[in-house]
Amino acid sequence: AGLAIAETPPLEAKDTYRVGFPQMESNNPWRIAQTKSFHDTAETCGWDLIATDAAGSAAKQVADVDSMIAQGIDVLFLPPREEKPLIPAVMKAKAAGIPTFLVDRSVDPSVAQAGDHYVSFLGSDFIEQGQRAADWLIANFSGEKGVIVELEGTTGSSPANDRKKGFDDQIATDDRFEIVASQTGDFARDLGRQVMETLLQAHPDVNVVYAHNDEMAIGAIQALELAGRKPGEDVIIVSIDGTRDALQAIIDGKMGVTVESSPFFGPLACDVMKRYAAGEEIPGWIKVEDRIFTKDNAADHIDEAY
Ligand code: GYE
User: Fold this and answer.
1) What are phi and psi of 244, to 5 degrees?
2) What Gene Ontology cellular component terms go with this record (predicted)?
């Protein structure tokens, strides 16, 4: 028997492409900056862009992809809200002969693979982001015992799964720390605030908050301040993204660190698409390199933040 060769649909080299970008939600600055990056790139990359907003529903995101397929897109840039529910969208795009690039989040690797069901994943190493947040905490925590509350991202999303794994495994190597609670705040500011309010009552001795993104970290800061705590002084906040509000919180002394996770995917998407159309071999993961923001450099980057 011969080898089965997995192949992704080809992309013709041409001047204009009909491009699908089914955004998952628009309730935070990260998502708004990412959508804007695709719109900005449409003008410079020859894209006739169809962008939708699934308003936080994986089912709607799948339906949005269906309708883009029906509208004859040439290429799909998909940010899958959750790892499993978006698999059907990836499969249907492939069946329709449309090359798909996953942007910023991935899908369940036991079901769908790069170089077969989709061309490539463009995004950060979320395990490493979690590790780096833990490394900063381990190096900068001066107390005796670190009582950690963890605010998780959207349940079933690749960044929530991997940011948890990276952080939890790394923090387990230092026995000063204990994670006393880990709950989802759905990557949202308001839910982060609510969950923090509840957890604060159950764990009044908390002195570290690890949030999987800046929006939840800002929500947690609000909850802590409302309870009379002093974020940055009696509670250390570590987070991920690098939003404007987070950099401002670092400058104000309320947040310790945020590991970068950039939303500016448009230019990279354009470049990778053109290389694919030119017949270049594309790696299954195009890893975005992240910076780290602390009091040492937050002020230098706030002007370019979103
Ligand atoms: O960190 C978060 C957003 O998928 C990497 O999604 C992205 C994450 C980002 O809601 O703020």
Assistant:
1) -60, -45
2) cell envelope
